[in-house]
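If you are new to this repository, start here. Below is one unmodified record pulled from the training split, so you can see the exact layout before writing a loader.
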Amino acid sequence: MPPTVKQVVAGLIFQDGKVLICQRTKYQTMPLKWEFPGGKIEEGEQPRAALRRELQEELGIEAVIGEEVSRIRHEYRGGGAVELRFYAVHSYAGALQNLIFKDIRWTELAQLPTFDFLEADLTLVQSLAEGKIR
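And here is the target side for that same chain:
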């Protein structure tokens, strides 16, 4: 039986040529890995609405969700699969707050591969670092 595919959205929050990345806490699954903020799409929720909600919950911002820039399906070795939709976020209202992560930071796109990202994010990380996505 094929694994259930978890639908996930994430925001690529750009500012001054940098992107915001977030580090999971040691208590989360895949502890201390870096990722882009976002989360699971709830039953009956549209992807952009899910991302707006997640960014409010995680960072305390009201984000303007832009275009979908990438969609990746990833199957983990231990079972389980995710379909990730990444959206550009070029503007938001409110002060950015770290509400759930161990760390958040702005980083240059070229520096992204130096961080220990979630396996599902690695293809996108490489594309961003190479300037294929902005």
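Two things worth knowing about this chain: The two ends are 38 Å apart (CA to CA). The domain at 5-129 is CATH 3.90.79.10 (Nucleoside Triphosphate Pyrophosphohydrolase).
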